[in-house]
Write a structure and sequence with these properties.
By secondary structure, the chain is of the alpha+beta class. The chain has two domains: about 55 residues, no CATH class; about 100 residues, no CATH class. About 30% of the residues lie in helices and about 10% in strands. The protein contains seven helices and two strands.
Length: about 190
């Protein structure tokens, strides 16, 4: 994965990609700097061992005064959109096992205290298909979402379900369209 990332970084910059394996820490940090990526942790594993693990750069962009060098054993990262891949794969595995129906109301899978109901269309069910395809009606709230991406913020000290419930219980975080009718990219609504 790291080597693919570096290939694309070099390709995007118009450089000829000649790599040693593994690439030197300096070459990776220079590539990160050149492409305005604050940092990364790379790990390569097989079924039994860690083959390669290295941290590069910082935990946040330069605009954050409190940024720190990444420590692969201690730095906490906000997963951002990478979690959508895992959620999608996990959901489809459950579909294959007949444990999840993409078109069934998601509230049938959630505990009673975690109901997800569109405040403007309470009679229209939200399904896992809606969540995975960004058509649930859960909208963006950039100000609220940015609070989740600040290094050393309270988000790392709170319960994820509480954060999501607080977000979806605020009517202003919902689109004015019924579930399943409009595709609108949603960080909170899709992982």
């Amino acid at each position: 994965m790291l080597f693919v990332l570096l290939y694309f970084i070099a390709f995007a910059q118009g450089h000829t990609a000649i790599f040693q394996c593994p690439p030197s820490k300096t070459s990776i940090e220079n590539s990160l700097y050149d492409t305005n990526i604050p940092g990364l942790v790379a790990i390569v594993v097989n079924s039994t061992h860690i083959l390669y693990e290295q941290a590069f750069g910082y935990n946040a962009p330069p605009i954050f005064e409190e940024r720190q060098p990444i420590d692969s054993s201690k730095t906490i990262f906000v997963l951002a959109s990478i979690s959508k891949t895992f959620i999608g794969v996990a959901a489809m595995q459950l579909v294959e096992l007949h444990e999840l129906d993409l078109d069934k109301d998601i509230n049938e899978y959630l505990p009673s205290h975690m109901k997800v109901i569109h405040p403007f269309y309470p009679n229209i069910s939200i399904t896992m298909r809606h969540v995975l395809s960004h058509t649930s009606g859960i909208g963006p709230n950039v100000n609220e979402e940015l609070k989740l991406y600040v290094p050393n913020d309270d988000f790392t000290k709170t319960n994820l379900s509480s954060t999501i419930l607080s977000y979806i219980n605020n009517k202003s975080n919902w689109l004015s369209t019924p579930p399943g009718t409009v595709t609108h990219y949603s960080n909170i609504g899709a992982g």
